[in-house]
Amino acid sequence: QVQLVESGGGSVQAGGSLRLSCTAHGITTNNCGMAWDRQAAGKPREWVSAISTDGYTTYAGSVKGRFTISKDKAKDTVYLQMNSLKPEDTGTYSCRTFNCPYAAWGQGTQVTVSS
């Protein structure tokens, strides 16, 4: 069964940091682009960051300079290092594949940032 599993979410104060992980089960994502999205309560899902198969990274303007996406191919895991967190970063963060032979996405991990 193809599955992506996120972890690393939690509750932090503004200015704090968290590192999210997204690990593939049942597939390899090493030939896929990977992206992180987030969704705050009552708001539409928004794209946060992406990393292509050749390591090219992109970020939404709201997180650029604070978040870093990376990929450990040996562990088939994508990370999202989040620094200088703000209350508006609160939401459910999920990972997914793109430009990939198969579509896969995770259930998400909750991030709550208090002021």
Q: Number of DSSP strands?
A: 10
| Average pLDDT rating | 95
Structural class: mainly beta
Name the helix and strand elements from N-terminus to C-terminus, one letter apiece: EEEEEEEEEE
Counting DSSP H or I runs of 4 or more residues, the number of helices is 0
Low-confidence residue ranges: none
Report on the architecture of this protein.
It is globular and about 40 Å long. The strands form 2 sheets. Strands 2-10-9-4-5-6 form a 6-stranded mixed beta sheet, with no helix packed on it. The chain is mostly beta strands. Strand 7 and strand 8 (77-82) form a beta hairpin. The chain is built from no helices and 10 strands.
Q: What would the keywords be for this entry?
A:
four-stranded antiparallel β-sheet; mainly beta; 10 strands; globular; six-stranded mixed β-sheet
Give the topology, please:
Elements: E1 3-7, E2 10-13, E3 18-25, E4 33-39, E5 46-51, E6 57-59, E7 67-72, E8 77-82, E9 91-98, E10 109-114
Parallel strand pairs: 2-10
Antiparallel strand pairs: 1-3, 3-8, 4-5, 4-9, 5-6, 7-8, 9-10
In short:
Helix content is 0%, strand content 51%.
